[in-house]
Structure formats: C-alpha cells, structure tokens
Amino acid sequence: MKNILFIIGTRPEAIKLAPVIFAFNNNKNFNVKVCVTAQHRDMLDQILKWFDINPDYDLDIMEPHQTLSTLSSKLLKGLNSLFEKEKPDIILIQGDTTTVFIAALVAFYFKIAIGHIEAGLRTFDKYNPFPEEINRKLTSCLANIHFAPTETAKKNLLSEGILPEKIFVVGNTVIDSLLFTIKKLKLVKNGNLPIASKLKRWDQTLKKKKLILVTAHRRENFGKGLENICKSLLKISDRHLDTIIVYPVHPNPCVQKITNKILQNNNRILCTKPLSYIEFVYLLSKSYLILTDSGGIQEEAPSLGKPVLVLRETTERPEAIKANTVKIVGTNEEKIITNTCKLLENEKLYQTMSKAHNPYGDGKTSKRIADIIYKLSTKL
Q1: What is the DSSP pairing of strand 90-94 with strand 2-8?
Q2: Which of 40, 218, 250, 312 is catalytic?
Q3: Residue 159: which domain range?
C-alpha cells in the first residue's frame, strides 16, 4: 500500500483536489492523508466543509499582511516537520501557489516523489501572474509526474526538457468539482439547509436582471489596475440599467481599500464578502457574463456557456481564447467598458461566445489521475 499525502493551501487548490482525494479514497491500494497549510483560512475552510474533507494535519500558517518570504519560511519549517513524521511515498499538489512550490521543494529535499496536477500552464512573463508564474515553473523542475490539463500545457513542459513519459494529459479537475456541485445544487436548493434560503434570496435579487459576475484580486492588479476595473464597473452599471453586478470582494486589504472607496453606495453593484463555493457556482450558473482575473473561472465558465472577459494582460489558459469563449481585456478602463457593452448589446456576438464548449475537461480527470498513479506505484 502506497502512502499518498495531499498538500492544500488555498480555496482553489481545495476545489480542484477534492475530487482527486475522493478518487484515491475509493482505491484500497492507497493510504490517503491530507495536510492543509491554510495559506487562506476562512475561504479554505468553506470548501473543506462542502466537500466533507477532514484534514489529518493543519499547519495554520495564515497571518494578516505577511510577506511572501515570511510565508515561504513558515511553509518550509512546517512541511519539513510533517515529511519527517509522515514519510509519504508521494505528495500530490495542484496549481501554482506558494504552498505548491514550497511543498515540492521540501519533498525534493526528502527525495519524495512529487505529482503535480495542472502542470504546464505558462504566460512566459515571470511577473504576470505574480508570483504564480515562477511558482509553477520551479515546481515543474522538481516534479516527478506532471498531470497536464491540455496538449498546450504538455507542449510547454516538453519545451522545458521534461521527458514525455513523465507527462500525462488528463484534463482539469476543476470541471470534476463543478459538475459535482451543479448536480448537488439541485438537491441543496430544494432542501432545508441554510444555504437553500441564500440561493432563493439570490433569485429574488437577480430577478429580471442580467447578472455580471466579477472577481478581481490578483497581486499584479493591485493599485491602478484594480482602480480601473472598479471605475469601469461604475460606468457599465450607469449605461446598462438592466444589469446587476455582483462582486465578491477578496479579504486582502489592498483589494478592500480600493473597492470600498470606489464602489460603495451603488445599489446596482453588490460588493459582498467572499461567497461560499456553492453560492459562487450558483451565481456562475445564473450569470450573463463574467469579468475576472481568476484562472479557474476561465476553465469553469465555458462549461456553463458563459462568456468571460479576462481582467489581465496575459493568460496561461489560451485554449478558451482559441475556442472564442474567453477574451483578454486587461485593466484598461475603456477596453473593459467597450467589450462588456458589446456583449450586453450585440446578441450575435454574445451567442458566439456563449456556446458551451470546454477544452479543459469532461468530469473524469480525477479518476484518470488515480489510475495513472496506481499503474506507476511500483516505480515510486
């Protein structure tokens, strides 16, 4: 029996690793344990509860205003102690956070095998996104097994000298989680849980309105970029009275300061606290279009036929751009306004972008990963 240790730092990692954990738990050949570093705390805990994941270890390293250097040093120390105790045969990590990179580094020091899920994403700009682009490149240098979501990601890895037999194109696990949640939503909304009341209240709030769902919290957008995004939302709202904008605001003080200053006191722009995953997926399904600097939403929205305008200058997910369901608009105020208004006013353009086509997965990625690890387990 092989000892598998999952390392989770943030809410997106938990969303994307939850179905993989389920897949491994269904295989009696693995002894599965889960460690959360809590790089994000409250937002992470919501996901763990939704997917009924009870971590075996919680490093609880989150502190307000800590630097990346401080975060990294705490992760090094905490994961070093954990690996000394657990001695896993393989760790599984997902994505590009500081938790992911440091976990890979410490595992390398211990000569523990590393499986990297969502490997090979690149913008080829080391400061955009920051620090994620370098995190994932360095993780690729350390990983033993690379689970690429697409052929493009595989090509990126091959160009960096990763051996082809170490790369497996499997799709993206975020689609597994999304489809699971959409299915579960139907049961939840008709039930007696508190979340059912929240979903019904959203129905009343959104009644006869086109919902524009917004997320914006990337470090590279702090300052002028985020100011431009917020100013553009005001003008879009003023021009289109039939819309309602919902913006779940990240708790980072750099984000809170700007959104509070620019967007307060507007009854057609709802700046909320971070939503639970179930609420967010529900709003995603109800949205007319999405403005985001998130990577994961670029993968999720096409499955639901929702056009996405990316509030970044680059993307490591070019497949949806090629499929014409996603468009990069950056943080230029006029560009955001123009492209959003086109989608609100041009039905033909909207229909072209809203065709449900997702190049990122079919809901079976997690099982593929578990099957591959099982086949390779004798070599680990």
Answers
A1: parallel
A2: 250
A3: 2-172+362-379
Catalytic: 250?
yes
Per the annotation, the verdict on 96 as an active-site residue is yes
Q: Annotated catalytic, 136?
A: no
DSSP symbols for 23-81: HHHT-TTEEEEEEE--SSSHHHHHHHHHTT---SEE-----TT--HHHHHHHHHHHHHH
| Residue 182 included in any domain | no
- Of residues 217, 218, 312, 368, which has the active-site annotation? 217
The residue annotated as part of the active site, out of 13, 132, 220, 319, is 132
- Exposed, middle or buried by CB within 10 Å (0-12, 13-18, 19+), for 273? exposed
Bridge pairing between strands 167-169 and 145-148: parallel
The neighbouring-strand residues paired with 117 are 94, 147
Of the candidates 11, 116, 219, 368, the residue annotated as catalytic is 219
Successive 10-residue mean pLDDT values, the chain, 380 residues = 94 95 94 92 85 95 90 97 97 97 98 98 93 97 97 97 98 94 84 83 92 92 93 96 95 90 90 92 96 90 92 90 92 97 96 81 94 87
Q: Are residues 26 and 137 in the same domain?
A: yes
Q: Is residue 65 annotated as part of the catalytic site, yes or no?
A: no
Does the annotation count 13 as an active-site position?
no
Number of domains in the chain: 2
- Give the domain CATH number at 115: 3.40.50.2000
* Helix locations, the chain, DSSP H: 11-25, 42-50, 68-86, 98-109, 132-142, 151-159, 173-189, 194-205, 224-239, 253-263, 277-286, 296-300, 318-322, 333-345, 347-353, 365-376
From 13, 40, 118, 319, active-site residue: 118
pLDDT at 190: 75
Q: Do 198 and 111 sit in the same domain of this protein?
A: no
Question: Residue 360: its pLDDT value, please?
Answer: 86
Residue among 119, 74, 121, 123 nearest 99 (CA): 74
